[in-house]
Each structure stands twice: as C-alpha cells, then as structure tokens.
Amino acid sequence: MSYYAISDILASAQKIPCTFDLPIPGLGFLDDNPGGDIQPHTPVALPLYLATLLAVQRPSPTSPPLLSLDLPASLSERVLNALKADPRTVDLRALEVHFYEGAGKVLEVLEDEDVGDVLAETFKVRAREIADFARNTGRGTGVAGAGEGEFLRGLEEWERGLFRAAHDSSRATRLWMGEVQKKKK
C-alpha cells in the first residue's frame, strides 16, 4: 500500500494490545496515571504505527525492547478458530473494517506463520464466494437481492473492492456478449 492511501492510514491506526517491558518515566497517562510512570508489565492499547516503533526500540543494545506486542482481538484464538471452521460465516467487517490490511501490518511485526496461513486460506475461500456472488448478483436488474445484501454487509473493505471489480467485469462481459450476439444476427 501507499503512504497516502487512506485505508493504509486507517489500518495503521488500529489499536493493538501491548505490554511495557521496561519502566518509562512520564508516560503514566497511557495507563490513566497522569504525571506518573509506566511500570513494567503494564498492559496498554496503542495505535499500531506507534506500537511497532516502540517494539523495536531498545534503550541500549543489551536491554529488552520497550514493549512487546500481542495479537489484537480481531486475530484472537476464537476468531482464528472460527475462520478455520468456515471463513464464510465470519463477519470480518464487524471485527475490523480494514481486516486484511490491519492483519497484514500486525503480521509484519509479529511474524506468526500460522496466523498468516489461516488468513491466506480465509481469503481464498471468501474470494471464491465473492466472485460467485459478483457474477450472479442482480442479473438484468443491477440490484442486489435480500440475501445478497446480508452477504455484502459482512465484507471488509478489500473484499468490497474485489466484489465491485468482479461485478463490473462480469457485467461488462455480459454486455459485450450481447453486442456480439446482435452482430451475428
């Protein structure tokens, strides 16, 4: 993604759970302690862009990082188990509007291969479903039916873009085929 992409900015701004590993003077306001210090083992939720910067910072080469990162709620064990069971039933938009972008940014830092595999399989399964819906949505009318509206509400932003592209492509192909049929007659 691009530095100027709104979706990238929004994905970087998601809050991620962290735990400070070292005492930090003057940052007590992050833990509802204005004017105080952050103590070791203090859990806080920070925006991803800030948490990743602090996770790689070390006061000295031999000291541990300032904080450690945890998986966000959108990638919790419960969600991952649901995605493994049937990715089509999980409302990714309710978890996070920019689910794949946010998860990708988290995985860049945490490097959890198992979570990456689950997300890749999730995208493959959901992409097939999205392509099928896009191809068959509103044939002739261009309007989504009742069941289709429910399906579309559960798509996160990347999936919605995929749906739009597949739907527009399918529609353009049908129009082109109609023109070809007219020329044959």
Would you give an account of this structure?
The protein is mainly alpha-helical. 55% of the residues lie in helices and 8% in strands. Strands 2-1-3 form a three-stranded antiparallel β-sheet, with helices on one face. Helix 6 (113-136) packs parallel to helix 8. The radius of gyration is 22 Å and the shape is elongated. The chain starts with 5 loop residues before the first helix and ends with a helix.
Quick take:
With 185 residues, this protein is mainly alpha-helical. Helices cover 55% and strands 8% of the residues.
Contiguous low-pLDDT stretches (5 residues minimum) are 140-144
Main sheet overview:
3 strands, antiparallel
Rounded mean pLDDT score: 83
Query: What is the straight-line distance between the termini?
Result: 47 Å
What is the helix/strand order? HEEHEHHHHHH
What is the radius of gyration?
22 Å
Query: Biggest sheet, strands in spatial order?
Result: 2-1-3
Instruction: Give the % helix.
Output: 40-55%
Oligomer: single chain
DSSP, total strands: 3
Instruction: Give the percentage of residues in beta strands.
Output: 5-15%
Shape: elongated
